[in-house]
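[Discussion] Sanity-checking designs against the backbone

I'm trying to build intuition for which residues belong where. Below is a structure token string of 485 positions. I'd appreciate it if someone posts a full sequence so I can compare it with mine line by line.
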């Protein structure tokens, strides 16, 4: 084979692109980004081939640096090897990029789950890279460099690898961050919270889940005096559940970072306080924020509500999976799939039933991968377009009756030992409803004004004793009770 033919063949097995980059001097420099294939040929062969291509590029005189990306992206599973998500190895291609640098003696850039400063430092100190790409790390905290320079490295908000950012853009959305509400919304929400120019207010936040912790952090940054009341002995709310899946344990970073920030800001968290109206009133607050979260709720069944257990029971370890299990998920998000993954991991026979066109449509393509992998490896049966109608007991078995939204006549039965349901959460609003008539604003908030950073609270009850931010879940706008407070 001629050199030219070999080159063409090699190029055909990978995707190439050349990226022009503007230098500070104004001169245009070029980088070559190569997606090195990982599934064709032997590892040694692939490495030799990659090294040969890299040397050729470096010697061409046409590029200033190599930007190494390893793998191929012909489907979602392969894409996650290139851009590893939560639960996958950290910096898996760093050594390979280092080999390219050593072989070519040419400047090398590289990004693939180098999420923390320590690993980035190691990459530079060990001569593996000339520049470290930290894409998602900067999405989670765009002030990484500033914090390093100012000696506040411990305040860096860590990327937890949830990859909500990429899953959103692959479905045509903006690159929002699960851990940083300001990312992608900079026009309306600042990354850096400024001190209030108004009066300092006394705030009680009820609930130390992610919302309560975030509210407390933002208000404390604004300079208010904040106290958090938490009913349990631990902060984190539903994140604690999410992190019980060993593959998603990094989610706890969302809680840990906020706890560490609250400690720095001097915000006390009172644990094991199941706050009632009296607990709030005796503190004489100016502002009360209810962030009491929700509890798992059952879907509406024709019969057998009392025979099912919730995905939360499984995830929390309160109920042990007992196969065969039928898991019915009409919420379509991580909670049901987390329960399914944990059930499958025990080896129990499992069928997932969903009324949707695919399992868990709320989860994007990259987060779909580890669930699909676990289900394929454990022979989990996935049944879509199907709704759980009722459950009845027969002997020591449960009979789940399944129907279809597409045909009134469709009805099939499954005999199982356990029916697990995931139907989202029901807000725990009792305290909010009790406090509503005692508040200035009767619990109403003008969210549009809030987003404009104007006063979101209107006086509706002059006899009220405090402003009340409701327990409320809004999908379109984040809840950031900083407004003009
Ligand atoms: C929100 C988002 C958008 C991205 N857009 C592109 C893109 O347009 N082209 C591209 O080659 N890579 C894109 N990437 C991939 C990154 O350049 C990078 O290779 C990848 O995120 C791995 O680096 P990280 O682990 O530091 O995030 C994107 C990544 C993210 C998170
Ligand atoms: S969404 Fe997750 S992966 Fe993306 S930047 Fe935020 S923390 Fe990191």
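Best answer:
Here's mine. Compare freely.
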């Amino acid at each position: 084979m001629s050199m030219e033919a070999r080159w063409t063949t090699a190029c055909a097995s990978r995707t190439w692109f050349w990226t022009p980059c503007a230098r500070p001097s104004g001169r245009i420099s070029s980088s070559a980004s190569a997606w090195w294939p990982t599934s064709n040929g032997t590892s040694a062969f692939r490495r030799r081939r990659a090294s040969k291509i890299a040397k050729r590029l470096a010697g061409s005189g046409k590029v200033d640096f190599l930007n190494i990306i390893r793998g191929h992206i012909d489907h979602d599973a392969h894409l996650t090897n290139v851009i590893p998500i939560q639960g996958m190895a950290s910096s898996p291609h760093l050594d390979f990029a280092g080999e390219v640098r050593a072989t070519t003696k040419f400047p090398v850039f590289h990004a693939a789950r180098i999420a923390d400063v320590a690993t980035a430092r190691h990459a530079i100190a060990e001569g593996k890279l000339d520049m470290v790409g930290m894409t998602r790390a900067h999405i989670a905290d765009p002030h990484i460099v500033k914090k390093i320079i100012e000696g506040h490295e411990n305040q860096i908000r860590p990327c937890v690898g949830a990859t909500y950012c990429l899953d959103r853009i692959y479905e045509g959305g903006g690159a929002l961050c699960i851990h940083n509400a300001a990312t992608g919304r900079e026009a309306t929400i600042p990354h850096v919270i400024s001190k209030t120019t108004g009066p300092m207010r006394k705030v009680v936040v009820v609930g130390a889940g992610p919302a309560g912790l975030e509210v407390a952090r933002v208000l404390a940054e604004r300079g208010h005096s904040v106290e958090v009341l938490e009913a349990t002995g631990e902060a984190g709310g539903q994140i604690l559940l999410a992190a019980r899946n060993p593959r998603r344990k990094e989610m706890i970073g969302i809680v840990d970072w906020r706890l560490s920030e609250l400690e720095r800001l001097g915000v006390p968290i009172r644990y094991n306080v199941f706050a009632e109206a009296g607990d709030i009133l005796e503190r004489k607050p100016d502002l009360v924020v209810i962030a009491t979260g929700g509890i798992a709720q059952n879907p509406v069944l024709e019969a057998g509500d009392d025979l099912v257990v919730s995905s939360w029971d499984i995830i929390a370890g309160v109920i042990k999976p007992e196969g065969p299990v039928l898991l019915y998920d009409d919420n379509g998000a991580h909670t049901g799939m987390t329960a399914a993954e944990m059930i499958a991991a025990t080896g129990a026979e499992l069928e997932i039933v969903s009324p949707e066109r695919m399992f868990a449509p709320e989860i994007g393509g990259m987060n779909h991968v580890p669930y699909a992998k676990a289900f394929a490896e454990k022979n989990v049966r996935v049944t879509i377009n199907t709704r759980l109608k009722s459950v009845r007991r027969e002997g020591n078995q449960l009979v789940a009756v399944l129907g279809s939204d597409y045909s009134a006549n469709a009805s099939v039965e499954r005999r199982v030992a356990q029916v697990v349901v995931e139907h989202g959460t029901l807000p725990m609003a009792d305290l909010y409803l009790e406090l509503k008539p005692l508040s200035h604003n009767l619990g109403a908030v003008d969210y549009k004004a809030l987003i404009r950073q104007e006063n979101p609270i209107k006086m509706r009850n002059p006899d009220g004793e405090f402003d009340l931010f409701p327990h409320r879940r809004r999908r379109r706008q984040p809840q950031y009770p900083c407004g003009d407070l």
